[in-house]
DNA sequence: CAGTGGTCTAGACCACGAA
DNA sequence: TCGTGGTCTAGACCACTGT
C-alpha cells in the first residue's frame, strides 16, 4: 500500500471519481468487480456499493446487473421540445438517437382511464419506447391511445414502420390542445433499471395529453428522462391579430 | 404475530406508509425506535433503515439524529402554470400564498447577459421573490428586465405596489414569445436554505425568457421550486384557420 | 456453469440529544 | 448516563449474464 487509503464511501467515491475524470479509467470501460474493489479499499461490499451508488447518482457510473460497473460517457443535455405533437419529439430533433418500440393492446385501468377519459376496460393501444443514445438509455415513453385511433400497420410487427411512426408520426388530424405536465420525482424501480440510474437520481417526468377539437383525448404519453440528461423547453408564440390586440 | 409480516424494505415501507396515511400514526408523532421496529418486522436495522429512507424520500418521514423518526405533515402539490406572462403565475392561481419581493438594480453579468441579450454592465432591474404557504417556503424567483422597461413605482419601496406587481402585472405589451426551459437539479446551498430542503432533494428549475415583437428580451425569470411541491403545466391550443388546415 | 451485481443479516462501534 | 439514529463489517444467499 504505497498510495492513499480512503476508507469511507465518500473518500472511495472521490478516489474513483478522480480516476474517471482524469481519464485513468476510460469511458465505456468496466470497473473491477465490486468484490475486488472492496478488497482493494479494505472495506465491506456494502460500503463500496455506497461509493458506487454516489457515482451512479452523479451520472459517472452505469451499473448493469450481472455484467459489471461501467464508466459512463459524458453526455450533453438533450432538449425535450414541448408541443410538437409527435410521439417523441426529442427523438425527431436528435437523429443520433435510436428508438425501440414495443406495441400491444391493453385494457384501460386505473390512472389511464382518468387521463384518457375512457371507461375501465376499454381497449387501448400501448407503445413502449426506449430511446438510446450511443448505448446509454436516454428516455422512456409509455404512450396510450384509444385502440380505434391507432394507425393501421403500426400494431403489426413491422419494426421499420414502428420506427418511423415513433419518430415522426402526427396522429391523424393535429390535436386541438396539448397539455404537458412536468414534475420531478424519484424513478420507479423499473425506470431506474431501464434508464440505468440510481433510485435516488430524480427523473424529469412529462405527462402529455392531446385532445382533438371534439374534446376527445387522442393520446396520453408518459415520458421519463434522467434528470441530468434532458431539459424540457416550451415556447408560446402570441399571434398578432385584432381579437388579441383588443382582448 | 397475528397480522401480516412484511420482510423486505419495500413491504415494510408499504406497511408504515399505510399506517401514516390512514392516520394510525399521526403527523408530528414519533415512530418507535429503529431497533424496536427492526425487531417488530424481524429484519436487521440496515433493512429497516432502507424502508425509512424510502419514506423520507417521499416526504412522509423526518429523521432527527438522536431523537427519532417523526411523521411529517404532507403538503399538496401546487401547479406552476406556464405561459401566463405574469411575474409568478403560480401565485396568481394560489391566493393562499404570500410573496415577499425585494427589488434592486444590478449591472448585467455572466449568464444574464446571454439570457437578456444585453451587453455586460447594462443596468437591469432585479426582483427577488420568495413565496410562502403557511410558513413553509414554496418558490423562489429571480426576475430580471432591462432597467428602462421596469414600470415606474415598482422600484420604489411601496410594498403594496410590489405585491400587486408580483402577482398580476403583465409587463407592458404582452410578449410575442415566451420560452420556458425546465430542468431538475440539486439545489444550490442558497436555494436549499431559502426553501428549507435538503441538499439531496432536487428542485424544479424554470427559466422563462419573454421577447417582444421586435425580438428584444423584455424579461428573464429564474424560478426554483422544491421538486416534491410543484408540478409545471404547459398548454398549447391550436387555432383553426385555413393556413393550419392546409399545412 | 462461473462471475457478476443485489439484498439481507447479526453484531459492533460511533455520534447526537436529553435528562 | 442512556437511548437514539448513523456507519461499518463479514458473510450468506439470491438474481442476472454469458459461456
UniProtKB/TrEMBL annotation, chains A, B:
Pfam families: GntR, UTRA. Keywords: DNA-binding, Transcription, Transcription regulation. Residues 6-74 form the HTH gntR-type domain. This is GntR family transcriptional regulator. It comes from Streptomyces actuosus.
Amino acid at each position: 500500500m504505497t498510495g492513499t487509503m480512503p476508507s469511507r464511501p465518500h473518500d472511495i467515491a472521490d478516489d474513483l471519481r478522480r480516476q474517471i475524470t482524469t481519464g485513468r479509467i476510460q469511458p465505456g470501460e468496466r470497473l473491477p468487480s465490486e468484490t475486488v474493489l472492496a478488497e482493494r479499499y479494505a472495506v465491506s461490499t456494502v460500503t463500496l456499493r455506497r461509493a458506487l451508488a454516489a457515482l451512479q447518482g452523479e451520472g459517472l457510473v452505469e451499473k448493469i446487473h450481472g455484467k459489471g460497473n461501467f464508466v459512463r460517457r459524458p453526455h450533453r443535455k438533450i432538449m425535450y421540445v414541448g408541443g410538437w405533437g409527435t410521439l417523441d419529439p426529442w427523438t425527431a430533433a436528435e437523429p443520433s438517437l435510436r428508438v425501440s418500440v414495443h406495441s400491444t393492446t391493453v385494457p384501460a385501468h386505473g390512472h389511464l382511464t382518468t387521463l384518457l377519459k375512457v371507461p375501465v376496460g376499454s381497449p387501448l393501444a400501448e407503445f413502449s419506447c426506449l430511446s438510446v443514445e450511443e448505448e446509454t438509455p436516454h428516455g422512456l415513453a409509455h404512450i396510450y391511445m384509444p385502440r380505434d385511433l391507432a394507425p393501421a400497420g403500426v400494431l403489426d410487427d413491422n419494426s421499420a414502420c414502428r420506427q418511423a411512426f415513433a419518430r415522426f408520426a402526427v396522429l391523424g388530424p393535429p390535436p386541438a390542445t396539448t397539455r404537458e405536465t412536468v414534475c420531478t420525482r424519484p424513478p420507479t424501480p423499473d425506470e431506474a433499471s431501464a434508464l440505468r440510474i440510481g433510485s435516488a437520481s430524480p427523473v424529469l417526468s412529462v405527462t402529455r395529453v392531446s385532445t382533438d377539437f371534439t374534446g376527445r383525448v387522442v393520446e396520453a404519453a408518459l415520458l421519463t428522462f434522467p434528470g441530468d440528461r434532458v431539459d424540457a423547453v416550451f415556447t408560446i408564440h402570441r399571434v398578432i391579430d385584432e381579437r388579441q390586440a383588443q382582448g
